[in-house]
Design a protein that fits this description.
This protein is an alpha/beta fold and 487 residues long. The chain folds into 2 domains: 4-207, Rossmann fold (3-Layer(aba) Sandwich), CATH 3.40.50; 218-390, Rossmann fold, CATH 3.40.50. The chain is 40% helix and 12% strand. It has 20 helices and 13 strands. It has helices at 11-19, 27-37, 52-63, 83-96, 113-122, 131-139, 156-161, 165-174, 190-199, 233-248, 262-274, 288-300, 333-340, 361-371, 386-394, 398-403, 420-427, 430-434, 451-461, 475-478; strands at residues 42-45, 76-79, 104-107, 126-129, 150-153, 180-185, 204-207, 218-224, 255-258, 279-282, 305-308, 323-326, 350-356. The strands form 2 sheets. Strands 3-4-2-5-6-1-7 form a 7-stranded parallel beta sheet. The chain has a 6-stranded parallel beta sheet with strand order 8-13-12-9-11-10, sandwiched between helices. α5 links the parallel β3 and β4. The relative contact order is 0.10.
């Protein structure tokens, strides 16, 4: 079996790796590191959680051992799609380069430009950045990329999903064509294939797993759920999620729960807290300090449930995640693999649950087509149907809806009911009606009686009804000329 000592890495790097507790490289590391040390371009295709970060960090530190960085001209560049992934790469660099004199700078959004400018001005060996923030510094004249010797693109397919490909192409054009390129992606859609054929030179292609395959250490379950009503689907699905968590008991030590929309992330986190679960949200709209604090809390155990959008699907490196719950079926099939890949890492066992509704059938079919197998179906957990049953019990019946009084008009008087016959019967008993004095003004004729109603009006007013005015003709319109008001 291959060990790190067999890979011709710098002794200082090997010492740091040993102290980190690693002895044997993962398949992607064992195959990519020798090619990278030879100076070749590398195209790595591997699912998330396979050790891709170390496969480019270790040879980069070894290759940069000689030489010195100049101000505003980094010697190597690592591009990552999200702030979390960029910060993860920076942490790995700190671990493996602690016995060297190499310097680094992390350029991500949500952090002051001033502090980042100071680091760049001193000169850095390794620049780790998200594409947008990197180009911001370049356009401000604070950065030159003509000294880049090694360029790394991590999670390229995620870059594609987030719309960063034009930025990546521009950054490639700003670096020397003699650079060494290490390009990593979990999947290879056509646009990524085009990018690699354009900017990589005879790369060593390394594929350690079938594209878009899930780790064998992850137990997957699909819970099919049909809401009682469309407008109650979100509430009832939350009840299913809580029942799933409770059914896992103590085995569910912590979990990442994925939603498709940021607004649902916040709503679900609020609901989970209301029901006594220790949960916090994380998505792209949150301030960087809040996101960092939330991730730190999840790592140290003070936050048990992390409610996340797909911005965090590939940017988290937390080995001990016991469960992943897909509250929403991902709209892109590839995201399913990246989501559930947050558990079952480094050989550990993990469990992944997906909650689907009939509206998710097309997304579910795309996932199963990509995986080339059906997702195992799981039973509905106990207690999941309570909210649905309660909703069906409390839902108003048609007869109850018809019997409700109408809203009062703005003037505060109750609106007259259309069904005057029913209302007249409910107003007073017949005895009370007969006790009324004869001198009282004749009651208004009942509506909806056709020709009888017209005859009664003619007998009362001596005139024909006004055509088009219906049953609500004011009396003064029906009086003849010269007729007194008290006739």
């Amino acid at each position: 079996m291959t060990k790190f000592n067999d890979l011709k890495l710098d002794p200082k790097v090997l010492k740091a790796v040993a102290e980190a507790g690693y002895e044997a490289p993962t398949p992607i590391q064992a195959q990519a590191i020798p090619h990278a040390l030879e100076g070749r371009d590398v195209l790595g295709i591997a699912q998330t959680g396979t050790g891709k970060t170390a496969s480019f960090t270790l040879p980069m530190i070894t290759l940069l051992g000689r030489g010195r960085a100049r101000a505003r001209m980094p010697r190597s560049l690592v591009l990552a799609p999200t702030r979390e992934l960029a910060a993860q790469v920076a942490e790995n660099f700190d671990i493996y380069a602690k016995y060297t004199k190499l310097t680094k700078a992390l350029l991500i959004g949500g952090v002051s430009f001033t502090e980042q400018d100071k680091l760049i001005d001193r000169g850095v060996d390794v620049l780790i950045a998200t594409p947008g923030r990197l180009l911001d510094h370049f356009e401000r004249g604070k950065l030159l990329l003509t000294g880049v010797q090694i360029m790394v693109v991590d999670e390229a397919d995620r870059m594609l999903d987030m719309g960063f490909i034009p930025d990546i192409e521009r950054i490639f054009s700003l670096t020397p064509f003699t650079r060494q390129t290490l390009f990593y992606s979990a999947t290879m859609p056509p646009e990524i294939e085009r990018l690699t054929s354009t900017f990589l030179s005879s790369p060593a292609r390394i594929e350690v797993a079938r594209q878009a395959s899930a780790s064998e250490t992850i137990t997957q379950k699909l819970v099919e759920f049909r809401p009682s009503r469309k407008d109650r689907a979100f509430k009832e699905k939350r009840a299913v999620l809580r029942a799933l968590i409770r059914s896992e008991g103590e085995d569910c030590r912590n979990a990442i729960i994925f939603c498709n929309r940021k607004i649902d992330v916040d709503a679900l986190a609020k609901s989970m807290k209301k029901h006594g679960f220790n949960a916090s949200p994380i998505h792209g709209d949150l301030d960087q300090a809040v996101r960092t604090r939330t991730l730190d809390g999840f790592r140290d155990g003070s936050v048990r449930f992390l409610i996340a959008s797909d911005v965090a699907a590939r940017g988290l490196d937390i080995p001990a995640v016991s469960h992943v719950f897909n509250f929403d079926v991902p709209s892109h099939a590839e995201d399913y693999v990246h989501r559930i890949g947050r558990t079952g890492r480094a050989g550990r066992e993990g469990r992944a649950f997906t909650i689907s509704t009939p509206a998710d059938d097309k997304y579910l079919a795309a996932i199963e087509h990509m995986l080339q197998k059906k997702l195992p179906r799981g039973d509905m957990p106990e207690g999941a149907g309570e909210v649905a049953e309660e909703g069906s019990r409390t839902a108003p019946k048609p007869s109850e809806t018809a019997a409700r009084p109408q809203r009062k008009p703005r003037g505060g008087k109750p609106a007259e009911r259309r069904d005057d016959d029913a209302a007249a019967g409910a107003k007073a008993p017949p005895e009370a009606a007969s006790a009324e004095p004869a001198q009282t003004r004749p009651a208004r004729p009942e509506r909806g009686r056709g020709s009888d109603d017209k005859a009664a009006r003619k007998a009362r007013t001596g005139t024909e009804p006004v055509v088009g005015m219906g049953d609500h003709v004011p009396d003064f319109l029906l009086r003849g000329f010269g007729q007194k008001a008290d006739d």
